[in-house]
Design brief:
By secondary structure, the protein is mainly β. Strands 1-2-28-27-26-25 form a 6-stranded antiparallel β-sheet, with no helix packed on it. A 5-stranded mixed β-sheet has the order 4-5-6-7-11, with no helix packed on it. Strands 3-31-30-29 form a 4-stranded antiparallel β-sheet, with no helix packed on it. Helices cover 9% and strands 40% of the residues. The termini are far apart. 51% of the residues are buried.
Length: 444
């Protein structure tokens, strides 16, 4: 009886989550259609209105953009990066063996490549078109110099592209999807995100079709040989995964040390899985939280102690759930010292209203890409001493969507999609949906 009740509850949760994901995509599509109808995506290919970098942050402004301790070094519009749709999404980066820094800039009709020169100036190097048709959702990651690209476009599968092809280019090149890919993986059609576990040469495609045997969960792709990718299994037990972070665990829960652990953001829960045995992965825990509307993404506050993680919810500000009823970007803090029993210990709220989207933590700073409020840099080093979040503080920002500054922010799906904060130079790449890519530098 108890097992049947649990199964019924899990099934009900899966159905509810699917409805919420469908609603989320409908909300975004409606908003972006309105932006298209109003010509928003055509504004920034005009030299008279595009940002004129570099622009240091002085007295709270870098050009037209509100800021604090973040300088704008350079900007390229989506049109300047070869996009005909002129709409952006995800972003990732790669550093060559000789230290050159490149960005892979997601766009609805493909992936653009830029190089950041030593001065911070962005140079457009070329693009990889979409594998099938355009889609507002495209995601990419890099392992050992190979770029892995997925998309919600039907039949897109996963493109595998060697970033070293960019090194000799003297002028921009549009690569051929038939002849310039290292490989094309067709084991799934569409996907929502690409998760990379670099240490283990593993890609986890998440948000694939719920109708496949993996049910939208962690779809494993071994890329030890990028030319011959294969799937050793999947994690379907908790259904659809929206995003994840996978690590070789070295935290306080000693029984899992050395194991491959994935922290999954599963629409209405934080779900932790042991994926060490690819043929028999198992769910360790499944944790809901107060204020949940759509569990989106998150990151460990430290890759060395692994005691806490941050979680962002993409619909709580819009739906007004829990503390997010005030519309201010809300980040949830979880104690994960026991992987079997995580606890939500507190939360942090941004000074302004905005929907959160993606965040990555580097040396105790969470680099948050929060739609209309742009890049927000939050000092989260106090999580150990004060897990309530009351001691978290914003230490810098760059708002790439100035249209709503006067009213303290608006809860909608414009502005920044994601940020890449891992370059040794300290340069940051911020991809704006409607404008283009910004090269930034935090000076704090």
């Amino acid at each position: 009886m108890k097992l049947s009740i649990l199964l019924a509850a899990a099934f009900a949760s899966v159905i509810h989550a699917q409805v919420e994901m469908d609603r989320l995509m409908e909300l975004k599509t409606k908003h972006w259609n309105e932006m298209r109808a109003n010509g928003v995506f055509n504004r920034y290919d005009n030299a008279r209105v595009r940002p004129a970098g570099p622009a240091p942050c002085v007295n709270g402004k870098a050009g037209e953009y509100s800021c604090d301790k973040v300088n704008m070094l350079s900007f390229l519009s989506h049109a300047e990066m070869g996009s005909t749709t002129k709409e952006g999404n995800d972003i990732w980066g790669w550093t060559s063996a000789d230290g050159r820094e490149f960005g892979a800039v997601g766009q609805t009709d493909g992936t653009a490549f830029v190089e950041i020169e030593k001065t911070g100036k962005l140079i457009y190097r070329g693009r990889l078109p979409t594998q099938t048709v355009s889609s507002p959702w495209r995601d990419m990651k890099v392992i050992n110099g190979y770029l892995y690209v997925g998309s919600e476009a039907a039949g897109h599968g996963m493109q595998i592209f060697d970033m070293r092809k960019l090194l000799p280019l003297k002028k921009p090149k549009t690569f051929n999807i038939a002849t310039d890919l290292t490989a094309f993986y067709a084991g799934f059609g569409s996907s929502h995100n690409i998760v990379a576990h670099e240490e283990k040469n593993m890609i986890y495609a998440v948000g694939t079709s719920r109708n496949l045997p993996c049910k939208g969960g962690l779809f494993m792709v071994d890329v030890s040989n990028p030319a011959k990718p294969f799937s050793p299994g999947c994690v379907s037990q908790d259904g659809y995964v929206h995003d994840a972070q996978c690590v070789v665990y070295n935290g306080p829960d000693a029984q899992y040390n050395g194991k491959e652990i994935c922290f999954n953001y599963n629409e209405d829960t934080l779900t932790i899985a042991d994926v060490t045995n690819k043929a028999a992965p198992r769910i360790i825990s499944r944790t809901p939280y107060v204020g949940s509307a759509y569990t989106h993404q998150g990151w460990l506050t430290s890759s060395t102690d692994m005691n806490f993680l941050l979680l962002d919810d993409e619909l709580d500000e819009m739906d007004g759930t829990g503390a997010a009823a005030n519309g201010r970007t809300t980040t949830y803090i979880f104690n994960i010292t026991s992987l079997a029993a995580p606890t939500n210990t507190g939360l942090y709220q941004s000074p302004v209203k905005s929907i959160d989207h993606n965040q990555y933590v580097v040396n105790g700073l969470s680099y948050q890409s929060n739609y209309n409020s742009g890049l927000r840099i939050v000092d989260v080093r106090s999580a150990e001493a004060d897990p309530t979040g009351k001691s978290f503080r914003q230490v810098g920002f760059f708002d790439c969507h100035p249209e709503d500054d006067a009213v303290g922010g608006i809860v909608e799906f414009s502005g920044s999609w994601s940020v890449y904060p891992y370059f040794k130079s300290g340069y940051l790449l911020l991809n704006s949906i409607e404008r283009g890519v910004f090269a930034l530098k935090y000076t704090g």
